[in-house]
Specification:
heterodimer, A: 406 residues, alpha+beta, 2 domains, six-stranded mixed barrel, two-stranded antiparallel sheet, 14 helices, elongated, B: 235 residues, alpha/beta, Rossmann fold, four-stranded antiparallel sheet, 7 helices, 34% helix, globular, binds adenosine-5'-diphosphate, binds magnesium ion
């Protein structure tokens, strides 16, 4: 006979009460697992939408390029990067960047020119699909430009508008060409909206007298790899370049999503587990009053108050443990179902974050943490809740309790 | 059997119950000694203070004033925790309502006290099984209290009280809920334990059967000892 066995038997003296309490606690744990997996799923989705748009999961630049975006700081060993990406089936695009001036009629604006390969951009990223007017580039659209929408507005440019472009080429010469607006992007990201002018990489090379200067490689496995995995894969073989994950490239977004996730999950977990903890406390208070006389006897035959506290708390812990198992089985099954199949939220209007429309299938995301957090919290709160009834039981004066009539 | 070995010495014990409105003077100056091997009974009308006195001797309650020396220790100088250790190791209680723990079997009820004493499992088993044999409780080990008759429950309660080999067993109205035949057999059992195991018993009762077995009768009246007499039949 062990204390744990005594607690177990005591737990089942009032079956109905115990069943009800276990169900309530299990329900809370189940709901918390489902709820958290949905939150994490939503945040993952927001992150996915963001990285999928233009940034990718990992970007590679020449050393120091991000501090000083000079035309001459370009990547030298792109072939090796491409072969690693290809081997691991990671999407890859190469981008060239240069600065200059663009003007249309009397209006002009400072611009960041992008030299891109439209097929790979369309295949691996989403921004090229977010076209407000006109069309995105194709491999045959030479001397065409796609503009960020705010830039288009400030140039009063529309599809077909003639643009004059001035840049300083790589050889120091002045690049000066005529382009026509092929399309205007929707809201994508602030820097793109304000200053991006996107052209074929061939046109870029001619304009800047450059010989395929790749300033940025963006990698996107669309979730097949963690960003850090890609980063490690690359940095193992590629040296003397800067390899950053999206989290490093967009620290505010990364921090915000992380904080939001932690905050929401902790807040909801606390609310639910405290509510369930009060239920546990109520059950334990009732069962303590039912057993006043027994606690008196136990004290009379020499048990210390500490032993009684342990016994009562153990009952609450066992109860919560059983509830945790049931709650986890139920909650995890539902969460895993939604992780696999998701649910369609089209009916409730478009799911959009920061103006970016997201896929309407909302999937949950299950991890060990979302199961352990509510269980650990529930265990902690149940134990704390049981201390009050336990202390009632422990403070019983044996003489009074033995004569206690219930 | 009276070896003149003093176990308990009470000096001028006073106990007042104060419920905020009225003060009940339950004990009004008790002087009493209990010796090793005693088989004594306290008698007196209901409300005369028998239970109160047993509780004070058994360290379940503290006197308002006066001293209790138990086996050389002054209860007034001990903490509640020390008192509960004394209860655990040196005192056995048997109550009127049996008061077995309902979720434990007969065997486990007796074993529980040994568990409180941190006695290892094998020794616990040996002690309880030997005692159950001696007390004719064999075969009832795995029954829950509700599956036992009143007499059987009281027998288990006595087993629980004596399994630790205490210096003193206090038994408060333990025959009140059983028929006289059962009462008789319980007392015979305790008499046997008193003789064979040299366990000291102090009873409180209304029951003349108990008086028949006692070697000393203490008569209580209004919180005072009225008379202490040796019972001629049993010496
Ligand atoms: N916990 C208590 N609170 C107040 N009065 C009590 C309490 N216990 C006993 N008494 C009173 O003390 C007196 C002695 O009681 P008790 O020792 O139980 O007598 P007995 O056991 O001889 O019947 C009685 O008047 C009783 O009402
Ligand atoms: Mg009484």
């Amino acid at each position: 006979m062990k204390t744990i066995e005594v607690s177990w038997r005591n737990l089942w003296r009032n079956r109905t009460r115990t069943y009800v309490t276990i169900s309530a606690v299990a329900l809370c744990i189940g709901i918390l697992i489902i709820f958290q997996s949905m939150i994490v799923g939503l945040i993952d989705k927001a992150v996915f939408t963001t990285t999928n748009l233009v940034v990718g999961e990992v970007q590679i630049h020449a050393d120091d390029y991000l501090n000083d975006r000079s035309l001459y700081k370009y990547l030298k060993n792109t072939e090796k990067i491409k072969s690693i990406a290809k081997k691991n089936n990671i999407g890859l695009v190469e981008r060239s960047y240069g600065f200059g001036l663009i003007s249309s009629g009397t209006k002009s604006a400072g611009t960041q020119f992008w030299g891109v390969n439209p097929e790979s951009e369309l295949m691996h990223f989403d921004f090229a699909k977010h076209i407000d007017q006109g069309t995105f580039l194709s491999s045959s659209s030479s001397n065409k430009i796609v503009l960020g929408n705010k830039l288009a507005l400030s140039l009063a440019a529309e599809v077909g508008t003639e643009l004059v472009v001035f840049v300083q080429g790589a050889d120091g010469s002045l690049g000066n060409e005529l382009f026509y607006v092929s399309g205007i992007l929707k809201n994508v990201a602030d820097n793109i909206d304000r200053s991006a002018a996107i052209m074929l990489i061939n046109d870029f090379n001619i304009l800047f007298s450059a010989n395929n200067m790749i300033h940025e490689i963006a990698l996107n496995s669309k979730g097949n790899f963690e960003a850090e995995e890609i980063q490690n894969l690359m940095s193992a073989e590629i040296k003397n370049v800067e390899i950053d994950t999206w989290k490093q490239l967009m620290p505010t977004i990364s921090l915000m999503t992380e904080k939001m996730s932690v905050f929401m999950r902790t807040l909801f977990s606390l609310i639910f587990t405290i509510a369930a903890g009060l239920g546990v406390m109520n059950t334990m208070i009732m069962s303590t009053y039912d057993r006043m006389r027994e606690f008196g006897i136990i004290r009379a035959i020499g048990a210390t108050p500490w032993r009684i506290i342990r016994q009562v708390s153990l009952e609450a812990i066992i109860l919560t443990f059983i509830a945790s198992i049931i709650g986890t089985i139920v909650g995890l099954s539902v969460a895993l179902y939604f992780q696999k199949y998701g649910f369609d939220v089209t009916g409730q209007g478009n799911l959009s974050i920061g103006g970016v429309v997201m896929d309407p299938i909302w999937k949950s995301s299950v991890s060990l943490g979302i199961v352990l957090l509510p269980i650990a919290l529930m265990m902690l709160i149940s134990t704390i809740s049981s201390l009050y009834p336990a202390s009632i039981a422990a403070r019983i004066k044996p003489v009074e309790a033995i004569h206690y009539k219930k | 059997m009276n070896t003149n070995n003093e176990i308990v010495s009470l000096t001028n014990i006073i106990k007042n119950y104060d419920n905020g409105k009225v003060i009940t003077k339950a004990l009004q100056g008790i002087d009493l000694k209990i010796y090793q091997g005693d088989f004594s009974v306290m008698m007196g009308p209901s409300g005369c203070g028998k239970s109160t006195l047993l509780n004070i001797i058994g360290a379940l309650d503290r006197a308002t004033s006066g001293s209790v020396i138990f086996n050389g220790k002054d209860f007034n100088s001990l903490t509640n925790k020390e008192l509960s250790i004394i209860r655990r190791n040196q005192i056995g209680f048997v109550f009127q309502n049996y008061n077995l723990l309902p979720v434990l079997t007969a065997y486990e009820n007796a074993e529980y006290v040994l568990m409180l004493q941190n006695i290892p499992l094998s020794q616990r088993k040996e002690k309880v099984m030997n005692l159950f044999k001696e007390m004719e409780l064999e075969g009832l080990e795995n029954r829950l209290p509700r599956e036992l008759s009143g007499g059987q429950q009281q027998r288990v309660a006595i087993a629980r009280a004596v399994v630790t080999n205490p210096l003193l067993v206090l038994a408060d109205e333990i025959t009140a809920n059983v028929d006289s035949k059962t009462a008789q057999s319980l007392l015979m059992l305790m008499e046997k334990l008193n003789k064979n195991n040299n366990i000291t018993f102090l009873f409180s009762t209304h029951d003349p059967i108990v008086k028949k077995f006692a070697r000393k009768v203490i008569l209580l009246k209004d919180g005072r000892i009225d008379k202490e007499e040796l019972s001629s039949e049993n010496i």
